[in-house]
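Input (structure):
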């Protein structure tokens, strides 16, 4: 398959996906969201693939939603804006409902929407120096479409602190919050990644898929038609065209403080 914003490499029983917009720190724009969703769907449909490993090219894993394209949503009709927000939610759902074992390896920075990917995945390995944050409120936005996945992963106490303050936190803290499974020194990522791959290859692929289904059932996150996905898409569609959202995103690009600071 041909992609422009991601790179996909197939190996025996596994596939690597690399986010590939390093010049904007792999920020998720509409093309990357579509391609990533398509890649996960395609790999999920292949019997020969048992483990999917997602990484980011360049300095950072991912700077979250592409603020340039989010800001431009003010020029779109509301139905277009909502449709677009639902595509972002669909990406997280696609990873959450994937039958294959999904490992995410993060480095550099893992901000905003990137934590939706992390929360929807099965195993997250973080380089020690990775900076994490849910910056949305500092941008006049809300971490809307990611919230069902993040809250299910880390619980309300941590979600409240991190989402309401927008503060940065370290990889070690992310581990204590349950957002990541392992923190590694630079250069050790490949060994730990390999260990998890080996664990998954010892397991039956059918049992992995069933076990993932079981874990969704016991955490009540197994409803593909849960209205929360639409409600959270509506929330971000409204927030990104709001006065606060437009001001926060403009301030980011103009490298200045927003008018509420
Ligand atoms: N959307 C669009 N562009 C982004 C972006 C985003 N989320 N994050 C970074 N960029 C762009 C910057 O505008 C900059 O562009 P420029 O070279 O034209 O000035 C380029 O990517 C490099 O960013 P910079 O901040 O210089 O990189 P850095 O390595 O010093 O820091 C981050 C990396 C991820 C820590 C920092 O870019 C950041 O905090 N980004 C914002 C992340 C965010 O708040 N996302 C939440 C979205 S809801």
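Output (sequence):
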């Amino acid at each position: 398959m041909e992609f422009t914003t991601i790179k996909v490499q197939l190996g025996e029983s596994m596939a690597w996906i690399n986010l590939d917009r390093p010049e904007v720190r792999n920020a998720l724009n509409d093309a990357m969201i579509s391609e990533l969703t398509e890649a996960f769907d395609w790999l999920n449909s292949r019997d020969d693939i048992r483990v999917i490993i997602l990484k980011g090219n360049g300095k950072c894993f991912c700077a979250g939603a592409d603020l340039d394209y989010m800001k431009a949503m003010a020029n779109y009709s509301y139905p277009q804006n909502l449709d677009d927000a639902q595509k972002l939610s669909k990406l997280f759902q696609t990873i959450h409902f994937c039958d294959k074992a999904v490992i995410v390896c993060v480095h550099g920075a893992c901000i905003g929407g990137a934590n939706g990917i992390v929360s929807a995945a099965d195993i997250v390995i973080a380089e020690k120096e990775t900076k994490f944050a849910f910056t949305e409120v500092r941008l006049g936005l809300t971490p809307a479409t990611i919230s069902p996945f993040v809250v299910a992963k880390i619980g309300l106490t941590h979600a409240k602190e991190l989402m309401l303050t927008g503060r940065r936190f370290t990889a070690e803290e992310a581990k204590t919050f349950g957002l990541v499974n392992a923190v590694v020194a630079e250069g050790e990522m490949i060994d730990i990644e390999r260990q998890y791959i080996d664990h998954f290859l010892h397991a039956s692929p059918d049992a992995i898929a069933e076990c993932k289904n079981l874990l969704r059932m016991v955490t009540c996150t197994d409803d593909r038609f849960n209205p929360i996905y639409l409600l959270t898409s509506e929330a971000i569609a409204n927030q990104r065209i709001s006065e606060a959202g437009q001001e926060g995103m403009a301030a980011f690009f103009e490298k200045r403080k927003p008018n509420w600071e």
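Notes: Strands lie at 6-10, 14-19, 51-56, 101-106, 109-111, 123-127, 131-133, 168-170, 182-184. The mean pLDDT is 97.
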